[in-house]
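Continuing the batch. This is chain 6 of the set; chains 1 through 5 are on the previous pages. Same settings as before, nothing changed between runs. Recording input and output for traceability.
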Amino acid sequence: MNEANAIQKRAEEAQAIERVVLATQKVQTAFKSLQSQFPPEGSGQPSKLALQVLDAALQELEDAQMAFDALLNDLLDGER
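Output for chain 6:
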């Protein structure tokens, strides 16, 4: 493997990891927002928007994890 190829692979790994981290942070933020709508701060009636935001964040996290897993599998199999 040449140096440029190794650098490219590391960059792809870093981007995939960053996507997982950012998606995790979005889930945490969405969960905290939803949690604030329950007692003692909230009424216990979560907004539809808060639920949709959490759902979208969870979906992005799942997608990011799947993409990361696929990338790692390709790297381990020598397909990248």
